[in-house]
Amino acid sequence: MDGIGLTIGEYTYGGNQWEYGYSSAEFADGKVYGSIEPNIFKGSKITSLAVGQSVDPSSQMILLHILWISFSIGLSQSTIKLTINNSTYTLNPVEGNTYYYIELPTNDSSLILWMQSQVGKTIPVIIQ
Predict the structure, then answer these.
(1) Angle ∠(16,103,34) on CA atoms, nearest 5
(2) DSSP secondary structure code for residue 56 in this structure
(3) What is the pLDDT of residues 80-103, one digit of tens each?
(4) Strand (E) positions, 14-79?
(5) Calpha distance 67→99 (Å, rounded)
(6) Percent of the chain's residues with pLDDT above 90
(7) DSSP state of 121
(8) Is the separation of the CB atoms in 55 and 62 below 8 Å?
(9) Is the pTM for the entire model greater than 0.85?
(10) Which residues pair with 55 in a beta bridge?
(11) Is pLDDT larger for residue 73 or for residue 60?
(12) In terms of Cα–Cα distance, which of 128, 118, 122, 117 is closest to 36?
């Protein structure tokens, strides 16, 4: 179990996509925001840790609502647990265990709204 400090940045695209957290150039060139310290977990650099949501521009229905973390080197873990604002989320891997994510309920925007309210602040995150 490692505790990190996540300084929340924000990224918006086209008025219908929002991301809050941290993203490095290693994860998505051109989408760099926020910061994280320390940025190493189990010997691998953390390249992003964020919550994102996109909505259909015409209907405003949520199309995608996820929490994710990515690493420079794949981990041997079958899941990653993130504790943010006293809630724990279990993320599953894709892409050779360098990217872990969970789809959040489309009817519960509490995490993304809380992260939005914390932009510019450093919050504690527990990774396990």
Answers:
(1) 60
(2) -
(3) 999 999 999 999 999 789 999 999
(4) 17-23, 35-37, 40-41, 44-55, 62-71
(5) 11
(6) 78
(7) S
(8) yes
(9) yes
(10) 62
(11) 73
(12) 122
Question: Rounded to an integer, what distance in angstroms lies between the CA atom of residue 80 and that of residue 54?
Answer: 23
User: What gap in Å lies between CA 112 and CA 37, rounded to an integer?
Assistant: 21
The pLDDT score that the predictor gives to residue 29 is 75
User: Which residues are within 8 A (CB) of 32 and not within 5 positions of it... i.e. 6 or more apart?
Assistant: 23, 24, 25
Strands 87-94 and 99-103 turn out to be antiparallel
pLDDT averaged over the chain?
Answer: 93
Residue count (the chain): 128
Rounded distance between C-alpha atoms, residue 128 and residue 124, angstroms: 13
- Tokens for 89? 């989320």
- The C-alpha atoms of residue 17 and residue 40 are separated, in whole angstroms, by 28
Query: Higher pLDDT residue, 35 or 26?
Result: 35
Q: How far from the centroid of its chain's Cα atoms is residue 18's Cα?
A: 11
